[in-house]
TrEMBL record:
InterPro entries: CheY-like_superfamily (IPR011006), EvgA-like (IPR051015), NreC/VraR/RcsB-like_REC (IPR058245), Sig_transdc_resp-reg_C-effctor (IPR016032), Sig_transdc_resp-reg_receiver (IPR001789), Tscrpt_reg_LuxR_C (IPR000792). Residues 144-209 form the HTH luxR-type domain. Keywords: DNA-binding, Phosphoprotein. One of its GO terms (molecular function) is DNA binding. The lineage of its organism: Bacteria, Pseudomonadati, Pseudomonadota, Gammaproteobacteria, Halospina. SMART domains: HTH_LUXR, REC. PROSITE patterns: HTH_LUXR_2, RESPONSE_REGULATORY. It comes from Halospina denitrificans. This is LuxR family two component transcriptional regulator. The keyword Phosphoprotein applies. GO terms for biological process: phosphorelay signal transduction system; regulation of DNA-templated transcription. The modification 4-aspartylphosphate is found at residue 55. Residues 3-120 form the Response regulatory domain.
């Protein structure tokens, strides 16, 4: 049975996607996530999910960090990026970071349904006219992506919280762990990212953000 996860913070759009998915996979198992933390929880509960429909602007994520989390820890799960932002460089970066497809939120429900079917069966589905042979990521961004792929799921979550400015005590409370555990995670995160401070770690994650002109739409 096909298992799909809709990761988008807009309830109305999630509802529209659910209607499409029910037509495509009436017997499928469907889960939802409204932010990155919830997506991590959903994936931990359903690690064999077949497909994630991922909003490019997930709350709690740094640009492409949610995509990198999925491709690093759940390589057998296909990811279809969905966004109103269709810039060529954004699509190329999505492909370079491991997405199996990219479709606009302005596409018709029929087109979205066909993209879901294609990606779920293992095909790639990207907008026509975009040359994916042209690199979308810089070597620096690629290095950050490689470093993030070495983080455990819990370290990934801690790194995200560090970039949001949370202190060890706050992170410990949010994750229901001890401060000593958080400190151990922070030490490993710094080592893997090759940094020595929280500010440097946040700047590293910032390499995955979208440019200012790319953040106008969801």
């Amino acid at each position: 049975m096909t298992t799909l996860i809709i990761a988008d913070d807009h309830p109305l759009f999630r509802s529209a996607l659910k209607d499409v998915i029910r037509q495509v996979y009436p017997e499928g198992v469907l889960e939802e996530a409204s932010d990155f933390a919830e997506l991590q929880d959903r994936m931990a509960a359903t690690p064999d999910a077949d497909l994630v429909l991922l909003d490019l602007h997930m709350p709690g994520a740094h640009g492409f960090s949610a995509l990198l989390f999925l491709t690093a820890h759940y390589p057998d799960t296909s990811v279809l990026m969905i966004s109103a932002n269709e810039r060529d460089d954004i699509v190329r970066r999505s492909a370079d970071h491991g997405a199996a497809g990219f479709i606009s939120k302005s596409a018709s429900m029929d087109a979205i349904g066909e993209a879901i079917r294609a990606v779920a069966r293992g095909d790639l589905r990207f907008p026509d006219g975009i040359d994916l042979a042209v690199p979308g990521v810089t070597s620096e961004e690629s290095g950050v992506a490689d470093a993030l792929s070495e983080l455990t799921p819990q370290q990934f979550r801690v790194a995200t919280m560090i970039s949001q400015g949370l202190l060890n005590k706050q992170i410990a409370y949010e994750l229901s762990v001890t401060e000593a555990t958080v400190k151990a995670h922070v030490t490993e995160i710094f080592r893997k990212l090759g940094v020595h401070s929280r500010t440097q770690a946040a700047l590293k994650l910032g390499q995955l953000d979208l440019s200012d002109s790319s953040q106008d739409d969801d």
